[in-house]
Amino acid sequence: MWVESEDGKQVALNFNSTQNLLPVFMNLRGPLSHGGDLTFSEFRVAVSLINEYNQTHKPEVLQTLCGVLYRKPGATLNKKNFDGNYREEFNPSRMGLYADQIQIMPEHIQWGIYAWFAYFCEYLLTGTFIIEGT
User: Fold this and answer.
1) Phi-psi region of 55 (alpha: psi -120 to 50; beta: other; left: phi over 0)
2) Distance between CA atoms of 84 and 78, rounded to whole angstroms?
């Protein structure tokens, strides 16, 4: 994961997995590994946010990205009538609320979420997909 430059003066994170290593943060749930439960709507918004963050480096944009991906648990999670939604349904009009819920999240955790989502996007463009074992 960590790569040191040849001269030993720089260290970089080389995160290359679509497995979500932080599925839960406090009372918030992140996407399933490999983007298993990302909806197209939230994916589009998250891509827009990561692109904006890459250009502006504004902390509030990173916070909003994390808020879009990490939301409260779905209403039926851990109940007999579980509907398969591990997180509450994504609603673009609630992005301010999502960002507010991330205020308590340490910056290094936000960077971890950024690294996961950035690689997930890269994998969608360049990765080899294995479907039903082939």
Assistant:
1) alpha
2) 10
Question: How much of the chain exceeds pLDDT 90, in percent?
Answer: 63
Range list of H helices, the chain: 40-56, 59-69, 95-101, 107-126
CA distances from 80 to 31, 75, 83, 89 (A): 21, 11, 9, 19
Tens digits of residue pLDDT in 13-42: 667 788 899 999 999 999 999 888 999 999
Confidence category of residue 126, pLDDT binned at 50, 70, 90: confident
Rounded to whole angstroms, how far apart are CA atoms 11 and 61? 25
- Encoded amino acid at 84, one letter: G
The chain-wide mean pLDDT, for the chain, equals 88
Alpha-carbon separation of residue 49 from 9, 18, 126 (angstroms): 31, 19, 21
